[in-house]
Amino acid sequence: MRPADRLAARLTALSRWSTVPADALLAAALFLATLGPGQVLSGPPWLLALQAALVAPLAWRRRAPMTVMGAIGLAAAVQWTLDVQLPADAALLVALYTVAARRPWRHALPAALALQAGVLLAAARWAPPGQFPFTTAALSAMAATALTTGLWMRVRRAYVTSLEHDREQRARLAVAEERARMTRDMHDIVTHNLSVMVALADSAAHVRHSAPDRAAAATEQIAATGRQALQDMRRSLSAGRDHATSDETRQPAPGIAELGPLAERMRAAGLATGVRVAGDTEAVPATAQLTIYRLVQEALTNTLRHAPGAAAEVRVEVSSCRAEVEVTDVRGPVAPGDPGLRSEGRGIAGMRERVAAYGGTLDAGPVTGGGWRVLAVLDLGAPR
Fold this sequence. Notes:
This protein is of the alpha+beta class. The protein has two domains: 18-169, no CATH class; 254-384, 2-Layer Sandwich (Heat Shock Protein 90), CATH 3.30.565. The protein has helices at 3-17, 20-33, 45-55, 65-81, 90-102, 105-126, 132-207, 212-238, 247-250, 259-268, 286-306, 346-356, and strands spanning 272-278, 311-318, 322-330, 361-366, 372-379. The chain has a five-stranded mixed sheet with strand order 1-2-3-5-4, with helices on one face. Strand 2 (311-318) and strand 3 (322-330) form a beta hairpin. Helix 4 (65-81) packs parallel to helix 6, helix 6 packs antiparallel against helix 7 (132-207) and helix 11 (286-306) runs antiparallel to helix 12. The two termini are 34 Å apart. The relative contact order is 0.06.
């Protein structure tokens, strides 16, 4: 933070903790500004004391608005009793403004009525002959202006506070959405890559004596899958940052074009996978392409984990405003113990969240004759 910004922040914090110095400066300025007119300087010393009694309470006007209004009103009543006119009566307007700006209506209204009563008394005593209506109207207009201005400032302050609250709420929602995105990505990345690595490790262990070359190839594929997982995790974690710090994090997120390499990794892990893509994929936004990739990745991972020996078929059809993703696997009848028939796990729930972000629908369940199908439809025209 720049020195000027730090100084401004400290002054703002100080002003929040103590408003007395600024208000005392206002009181002193009003005291000096109203000294010249009238008979304050040329009169007896007690006039100066009365002048101070009218303006001095303003130093605490924001800490105790009603108390200050009462103190100034009491000084004004003494002034009226002594039949002395002082320009420092303007302090009453400042006090009324502060009450209206800082306190609710139930406080501002009695303060305004009390000041209006003082206006009538002052006009009755000091108005020039025949000028009582004019004097009353002029003083009442000043009081009404102070009251209205204070109320407007109170409403404006409440509005600004509401805006700040809304901004904080949006910031918290953005953080929550980012955490949810990272949770979904971490689940998809870790679950998929670990499932592939486990399948490859089982395959390598099974053929390590009969086919050492195949075991070595599976081991290399395990290492490649691990490196891919680390790269995907770095990319996902850096997606919310302002700038990436390495070439890996600057690489684009996976999309429809990476479904082919994804299918190859699944085939290496033992899941026969076919991919068919139709439509102009170049027109699909990058975020929607990442969503499609994650949907296919999660569906294939579930098949690899829960349906050993099955074959999967991926179909992606896109248009200018719609994308349809279908992943179907061919296996035997779904057993009652299959996780797919129980309550939805994190994987299906994550897919629903991704699809919901594009105002789409997701259908996941067994198909007639055995197997499992995941069908997602994304509205590319109105992503949220």
